[in-house]
Amino acid sequence: MGARMSRPPFTIKNLMEIEDSVAGRAEGIEGRFARGHMDSEHLGVSLFRYGAGVRSPFAHSHREQEEAYVVVSGSGRVLLDGEIHPLHTWDVLRISPEVVRSFEAGAQGLDLIAIGADRPEGGDGVMAEPAWPDEG
Question: CATH code at 68?
Fold first, then answer.
């Protein structure tokens, strides 16, 4: 039996100190992914910040990973498999892996904490084109 890799019993990491991985890929959106900074076997936590009125140019689903999102500031809308749902500060949204999702900020912007569970090595995100019914 191989030696189990030692990891600390807890980790404290400020999300604002993690690099914005979305910078330059989507105007008005910031994304800070803490999974690799947390020493966790099972959890991923990310911060997404959308500027006022910004709609994500992409959507995604997962093959295996269930996610939860917590709206910590602002409001907006989420597109879930083609249906629009409003989001308000302190709403918690759980999404099954196969549901295609995309977000849009309201007039005050939208800040979300995303929490992801176990996923396969290298991730399991599946990118998709958002199909907002009110586009045009």
Answer: 2.60.120.10
